């Protein structure tokens, strides 16, 4: 039986993989060139100031994903990114499940990170122990 240490290591791997994936595969492409099309999609959802909200979502994915991977400000970063996934789920509400599955998976992990935190293998833990 692996026990608590294995659970801690397992959560760290999930947090890092999901954080890096969110940042590199979703946030970075929006920030480095896909913002116009993404802002059009945000406008189609009825958001006011679509460019502003598109940047908020893209940065929640890019910066939030990196913070989650590092385990720094994990809970607030996860909350902002989870909200972005709620909007993505709303956007894909009429699509086949396969189109919304990725947003649902990210939401589940981000929602868990809001409550669990980063764990002992994180910068949050290092900062907390210094104070």
From TrEMBL:
Q: Which residues cross the membrane?
A: 6-26, 102-123
Q: What is its main location?
A: membrane
Q: Which Pfam families match?
A: DoxX (PF07681)
Q: Where in the cell is it found?
A: Cell membrane
Which keywords appear in this protein's UniProt record, sorted alphabetically?
Cell membrane, Membrane, Transmembrane, Transmembrane helix
Membrane topology, as annotated, equals: Multi-pass membrane protein
> Which domain of life, per UniProt?
Bacteria
> Record's family?
Belongs to the DoxX family.
According to UniProt, the name of this protein is DoxX family protein
Origin species, per record, is Archangium minus
């Amino acid at each position: 039986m692996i026990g608590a240490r294995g659970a801690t290591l397992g959560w760290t791997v999930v947090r890092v993989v999901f954080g890096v994936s969110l940042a590199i595969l979703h946030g970075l492409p929006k920030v480095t060139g896909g913002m116009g099309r993404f802002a059009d999609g945000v406008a189609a959802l009825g958001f006011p100031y679509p460019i502003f909200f598109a940047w908020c979502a893209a940065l929640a994915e890019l910066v939030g994903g990196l913070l989650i991977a590092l385990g720094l400000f994990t809970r607030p970063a996860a909350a902002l990114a989870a909200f972005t996934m709620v909007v993505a789920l709303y956007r894909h509400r009429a699509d086949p499940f396969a189109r919304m599955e990725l947003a649902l998976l990210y939401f589940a992990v981000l929602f868990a990170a809001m409550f669990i935190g980063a764990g002992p293998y994180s910068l949050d833990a290092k900062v907390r122990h210094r104070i």
